[in-house]
Amino acid sequence: MDEKKAAILQEIPRLRRYARALLRDRDSADDLVQDSLERALVRMDNWRTGESPRRWLFTIMHHLFIDQMRKVSRRGEASILSLDATEALATPATQTESVASREIVDALQQISPDRRAALVMVAIEGFSYAEAATMLGVPAGTLMSRIARGREELRGLLDDQARRRAIRIVEK
After folding, report:
1. What is the CA 116 to chain-centroid distance, rounded?
2. pTM, full prediction
3. What letter would DSSP give residue 123?
4. Do 68 and 32 meet the contact criterion of CB atoms below 8 Å apart?
5. What is the Cα–Cα distance from 115 to 98, expressed in whole angstroms?
6. Position 79 pLDDT exceeds 60
7. Is the pLDDT of residue 158 over 90?
8. How far is CA 113 from CA 1, 48, 144, in A?
9. How far is residue 95 CA from its own chain's centroid?
10. pLDDT, tens digit, 9 for 90 and up, residues 4-13
11. What is the C-alpha to C-alpha distance for residues 111 and 27, in angstroms, rounded to an integer?
C-alpha cells in the first residue's frame, strides 16, 4: 500500500501542471488536484499494481473537471480568472522567449476546454493518441479532430497576437 501511495505522490507535479492548464486559476487547480487525489486514495483498489498511476490519475482528474464544467454551465455561473499576487505585480518580460511562452499559455486558455484538454494531454504530457482518447473517454478520431482544430485555433490566435505586438512596436 505504501508503494502505491508513493507512486501517486510522485505524480502530483504533473497533475498540478495539467490542472493549471485546464483551469488557469491556481486555487481552483489545487482544489481539482486535491479532489483527484482524494478520489484516487478512496478507490486505490481500482489501480492495478505494477502499472504507473499516471493514466489512472489523469482520467480521474479529467472526469472531475468535466463534472465541474457541467455544474458551472447548469448554474449559469461565470468562471473568473483571477490574477495571483505574483502575476499582478510581475514586470513585463524583456526576453522574447518569455513573451512567446506567455502568449502561448494565454492563447491556450482561449480555446475550448475539450480542445485544450486534448492538446495538453498529447503535446505537453506526452500521452499517445490512444491513451489520451481512453482517458478523455472519446474515440481516437474525435481526439485527433480536437487536436487538429485546437492547433488551428492556436495558430490563428498566435498570428493575431504577433500582428498586434508588431503594431505596438511600430507605434512606439
Report:
1. 7
2. 0.62
3. I
4. yes
5. 24
6. no
7. no
8. 35, 29, 15
9. 25
10. 888 888 999 9
11. 21
CA 30 to chain centre: 12
Q: Percent of the chain having pLDDT more than 70?
A: 76
Q: What is the pLDDT, as a whole number, of residue 118?
A: 92
Give pLDDT, residue 88: 47
* Distance of alpha carbon 43 from alpha carbon 31, whole angstroms: 18
Helices (H), the chain: 2-10, 12-23, 26-42, 54-75, 85-88, 96-110, 113-119, 129-136, 140-171
Kindly report the length of the chain.
172
Determine if residue 80 is left, alpha or beta; phi over 0 gives left, psi from -120 to 50 gives alpha, anything else beta. beta
Contact 70, 113 (CB under 8 A): no
Q: Determine contact, residues 29/22, Cβ cutoff 8 Å.
A: yes
Q: Give the integer Cα–Cα distance in Å for 54 and 125.
A: 10
DSSP state of 80: -
Instruction: Report pLDDT digits (tens) over 96-120.
Output: 556 667 777 788 888 888 899 999 8
